[in-house]
Structures are given as structure tokens and as C-alpha cells.
Amino acid sequence: MGHASSVRVPTANGSRYLQQLCKHWAHNLTVDYTPEAGNVVFPRNARGADWPGDATLTLQARPDGLDCRLDASSAEHLAALKGALERHLDRFAFREVPLAYPWQDEPAA
């Protein structure tokens, strides 16, 4: 992949939001999930895009938050997916908005 970033979004509803995100994206993406963990694959050409490769989102529900890790094919791909995740999560967590997204980027591999 090459470009990755992680965040723990503070919320007491991590499992609920994980399941809502996964159910939403399962309509047109490859998604595997349980109430505690999820994995979403964003194809390189999703929605007409032309990224160098696929990207993945890994989710883990915690009592105090939702851990999210994005692995993308380029810095631009990563930035786009961060925005998409934040917009979707804010929509599902409208009672808690604004949520905090203290992203921790990893050095490119």
C-alpha cells in the first residue's frame, strides 16, 4: 500500500458506528464485519477514480472509541479516504458532532 494513517475517534458508540459504516458500504464495496471489528476494501477505480491500487479501512470498536486504520495507494488517496470516513461517521454520529479525528500518519513505505 505505502500510505497509512490511524485514528481513535472518541465515542461510547464505537460498535454502533462500526456496524452502520460497514452496512452502508456493503451495498457496493467488499466488507467483512462483526460488532467488534470490520474491514472495508475501496477498489482503485471506485466511483470513477483511478488510484494506483486498492485501499483498505480496518475498524475496531473500543469501549471509549472507534479505532480506524486506512491503508491507501498514495498520499492523495489517503487524504480522500480520510475525508470520506469523517463525513460518513459524522453523519451517523450526528448527536455527537463534532467528533475529533486526531489522525496519526505513518511514514510512507
Keywords summarizing the entry:
six-stranded antiparallel β-sheet, 109 residues, alpha+beta, globular
Description:
The structure is a single chain. This protein has 109 residues and is α+β, with helices and mostly antiparallel strands. Helix content is 28%, strand content 34%. It has two helices and six strands, in the order βαββββαβ.
Task: Give a summary of the structure in a few sentences.
With 109 residues, this protein is α+β, with helices and mostly antiparallel strands.
Indicate the topology.
Blueprint: E1 3-10, H1 14-25, E2 30-33, E3 37-42, E4 55-62, E5 65-72, H2 75-92, E6 104-106
Antiparallel strand pairs: 1-5, 1-6, 2-3, 3-4, 4-5
SSE pattern, N- to C-terminal: EHEEEEHE
Distance between the termini: 8 Å
Strand-pairing-aware structural class: alpha+beta
**What is the approximate shape?**
globular
Q: Strand order of the main beta sheet, please?
A: 2-3-4-5-1-6
User: Could you estimate the helical fraction of the residues in percent?
Assistant: 25-40%
Q: How many distinct helices?
A: 2
**Main pleated sheet:** 6 strands, antiparallel
In terms of DSSP E residues, the strand content is: 25-35%
Rg result: 13 Å
- Unreliable stretches (pLDDT < 50, length at least 5) are none
Mean pLDDT: 95
Q: Please tally the β strands and state the result.
A: 6
Organism: Azospirillum isscasi
Protein name: DUF2218 domain-containing protein
